[in-house]
User: Fold this.
Amino acid sequence: MKNKKTVIGIIIVIILGIGLYFFNSEKFYTAADVLEDVDFSVEEQSVELTKIVIEVDDGKLVPIELTDTTQKKLIKAFEKSKFKKDESLSSDNDYSMKITLNRGYYMFMDITGKSIAVRDNSGGSYEEYLFEDDKGFFSILEELIRE
Assistant:
């Protein structure tokens, strides 16, 4: 009888330990979590990318030309990426990007830190995310920047 209680106690401790591990582990987000109500299956898709140049007195926005193929690659890579929340509120955003799918999704990007700040649906605050697995998203961007 005492052995049964010991075994049951050990099993309960193991189950609680596993539960605490999953409860305390970092949560990862998909692109569908990051972009509210997104529909990646729409026909008309586009990406607008703008470099933010702050070295100039008043700042300057420089649009970057993207081919249709590059836009599709960026959208596909973004869709497959994994993210985690970032509370550091980086102000090192080098680029702004608008992904148009079922609606426009605006974000700022820090290419060095591989992070994005996405405007929420209310149009007010931004949610910050780090790319955990970017599926080549930043490789595509870095190739564009070198050109």
